[in-house]
Design a protein that fits this description.
By secondary structure, this protein is of the alpha+beta class. The longest helix has 18 residues. It is globular and about 60 Å long. The chain binds adenosine monophosphate. Adenosine monophosphate binds next to strand 8 and strand 13.
Length: about 375
């Protein structure tokens, strides 16, 4: 078998999307001597502050997409909700990694969960719904509580509603504006964990995690690694991630989010074909971060070592923290082994991810306690 072509340092990556995941990818790529051109609809985004050039245009602008594709050697992405027509246009000129077929599946919850179920991966029991009556009958089969989710373009709990009674079905359906949706069982999980796999075009595979995650209001709040799960469960989660990446033929990264049930079984909640918020701790904790790994995977380079060298924890910094004025950065970073990352977003809003803190320690629980204390120090009134 001939080895796939390697994209060497000095060449140019294109990144679709302008958020923090793209920013950290661009920083890692530039460290290794690559150039990065971003394509994003918003001006002054987190990526544009750090990369060589940004094409700021809507995803519907065919001419700009072609101009972008002509200037880069391979394209990757930092969020999956890229319109299909834009991807097709780009893919007709240059490789997109992961490819359009992976994104087609992962950008729609119904397609994603149907793919998982059809390929015998363990997924939260769900049904498709296209109307209020269908929703009511699905609730009878799935049981209550249940979670109604829009099929397309959802993230961080957006487009979701927990239903506690069948009586809520009608009004919930109205609020969803009649879009195709899925309804799934509400899982009373013991833990949430994620595994981030990386795969190159030769089929080499490495993995981060499992990482343990805690959400607040459906948004990731805290992550720590190693997760407190058994070896058996960890190996199972890693095997599932590897099989999924092979089955979808992902070149790049794939994050698989799981619920761990009280019976110690795994149920997949969601897939993300890109770096993941839960993997940010890999920047300080692992020999090769998830962002450098994305570079290596899409460039066809050998994949790097992922095993964490210590316990690590990450706390997200949402816009809410900024409501009482400038957070006290000095106090937080005065704690040994605490690292600050800010994404350069000019405007803070409640729920908006502005940055994160990572703490390293011998053990994960120690790192978790440290990162929580560091975050508390950011709010002056809590000192
Ligand atoms: P999602 O956007 O689907 O990843 O959901 C965000 C978070 O909402 C998850 O990480 C869970 O904490 C919670 N959640 C979503 N779906 C369910 C479910 N079926 N059962 C229980 N919690 C859920």
């Amino acid at each position: 078998m001939t080895r796939p072509k390697v994209i060497l340092p000095g060449r140019t990556f294109g990144i679709l999307g302008g958020g923090q995941l793209g920013r950290m990818f661009a920083m890692a790529a530039q460290h290794m001597g690559y150039k990065v051109i971003a394509y994003c609809p918003e001006a002054d985004c987190p990526v544009s502050q750090v990369c060589m050039k940004t094409i700021c245009a809507p995803f519907e602008d065919t001419d700009s997409l072609v101009t972008f594709a002509r200037q880069v050697d391979v394209v990757t992405l930092e969020f999956e909700n890229i319109p299909a027509q834009a991807l097709e246009k780009i893919q007709s000129q240059v490789d997109v990694r992961p490819g359009a077929s992976v994104l087609h599946i992962c950008q729609n919850r119904l397609r994603e969960k149907s793919y998982l179920a059809d390929h015998k991966f363990p997924v939260v029991p769900f049904e498709k719904v296209t109307g209020a009556d269908e929703l009511k009958s699905a609730l009878k089969r799935l049981g209550l509580p249940a979670v109604l989710k829009t099929a397309g373009f959802g993230y961080d709990g957006k487009g979701q509603k927990v239903l506690d009674s069948e009586l809520e079905a009608e009004s919930a359906w109205q609020t969803f504006g009649g879009q195709t949706a899925i309804v799934e069982q509400f899982v009373r999980f013991n833990q949430e964990i994620s595994v981030i796999g990386a795969r190159n075009a030769s089929g080499d595979f490495v993995v981060y995690g499992p990482i343990q995650n805690e959400h607040r209001h459906h948004i990731l709040d805290l992550s720590f690694a190693p997760a407190s799960v058994t070896w058996t469960l960890a190996e199972e989660a890693i095997d599932i991630t590897r099989s999924l990446m092979e089955s979808l033929d992902v070149v790049g990264l794939l994050c698989v989010e799981f619920f761990v049930t009280p019976q110690e079984t795994l149920l997949i909640n969601e897939l993300a074909p890109r770096p993941h918020n839960s993997g940010h701790l890999s920047i300080e904790a692992c020999p090769v971060s998830q962002f450098e790994q994305q570079v290596r995977a899409i460039a066809g380079l050998p994949l790097g070592k992922t095993e964490p060298e210590c316990g690590a924890a990450m706390a997200n910094l949402l816009g809410d923290l900024f409501q009482a004025g400038e957070p006290d950065w000095v106090s937080a970073v005065s704690i040994p082994n605490v690292h600050l990352h800010l994404y350069g977003k000019r405007q803070s809003r409640p729920g908006r991810k502005m940055g994160h803190l990572t703490a390293l320690a011998r053990w994960a629980d120690e790192a978790l306690a440290t990162v929580k204390s560091a975050r508390e120090l950011l709010v002056p009134s809590r000192k």
